[in-house]
Specification:
alpha+beta, 4 helices, 8 strands
Length: 201
């Protein structure tokens, strides 16, 4: 993956990441997942972003440089993976919401559960991280320098297959059209409006 493709605002990068591949090599084996769903978070200008109120020790990775992995725990239960975008110093990141396992399905299923359907192994941001083996130790990883977790370009996705919609499960700016996904793909997560959702200003 070329750094130049990531050095733009999150809402521009998010659709470009559809079809890209995240790979994690571990002693257990290798898992590769094609990204099928993303959400853009625009930093200090975005009420739903972790960086909305400024830089903290938790969100520091979001402030750059692009191409690094920002990992956080959601609701104390699941790890979520974000790819940092934009320019150094300006917080911007794309949440990886779902993907299709293209290598290492047995290992992904071992992590997720023996009875989980193939289409659901990496469906939803928490499941994506679990299938890929992403945890807090990967926070800050440079995805472009050949570390264990690598972002690479996959097969080009026709523009006609890309759909755009509101973000899932956030209470602020939930109606921003910053969710991008592949039409008809069974790995894409279901849309859910947060019960705490508030109208945008």
């Amino acid at each position: 993956m070329n750094l130049d493709l990531l050095a733009h605002p999150a809402e521009q990068v998010a659709p470009r990441l559809l079809g890209a591949v995240l790979t994690n090599e571990t002693p257990e084996g290798t898992v590769r997942i094609t990204i099928t769903e993303t959400e853009a978070y625009s930093g200090t200008a975005d009420p739903a972003s972790h960086a909305y109120r400024g830089r903290t020790s938790r969100n520091a990775v979001m402030f750059g440089p692009a191409g690094h992995l920002y990992v956080y725990r959601s609701h104390g239960l699941h790890w979520c993976a974000n790819i940092v975008t934009g320019t150094d110093g300006a917080a911007s990141a794309v949440l990886i919401r779902a993907g299709r396992v293209i290598e290492g399905e047995d290992l992904a299923r071992k992590r997720r559960g023996a009875k989980v359907e193939s289409s659901r192994l990496a469906r939803g941001p928490g499941n994506f991280c679990r299938a890929l083996g992403i945890t807090a130790e990967h926070n800050g990883t440079d995805l472009l320098t050949g570390a264990s977790v690598v972002l690479s370009e996959g097969e080009p996705v026709p523009a006609a297959l890309i759909r755009v919609g509101p973000r899932v499960g956030v209470s602020q700016a939930h109606d921003w059209q910053h969710r991008f996904y592949l039409a008809g793909d069974p790995t894409v997560s279901a849309y859910r409006l947060s019960p705490r959702a508030k109208p945008s200003a």
